[in-house]
């Protein structure tokens, strides 16, 4: 089974880029990349030096329950800057390791699915978790800050 890595949906990126409120009802913060290290959730790429970007509180879930985490994400401020879902490792995953965690169809964490995984093993680990019928989707999150990076689904 080939995992598919999904960028932030276009409708959500467009909402934030148009100045729409984030998960906390706040307006996006506007910044310029200085010093690198800004992984864009819409392009699945690191943003280049000097590029405009947004910081927003994002909740990558459809509903609300005790497991629907909210946290900061970075997003290119450029209109239309989006990636297509991809089967290869997204270029913005440049840290040594990430949290990989499985969720049920009702958006609840499936205990025993979460672990810190070396970046070069993410595809293999995601494929193994997606073999389990109770796993509806996965999240890749920062191993140091728990920030949401992308959603992973079956290909």
From TrEMBL:
InterPro entries linked: DUF1203 (IPR009593)
Database matches in Pfam families:
DUF1203
Task: Name the domain of life this protein comes from.
Answer: Bacteria
Q: What is this protein called?
A: DUF1203 domain-containing protein
> Which organism was this protein described from?
Pararhodobacter aggregans
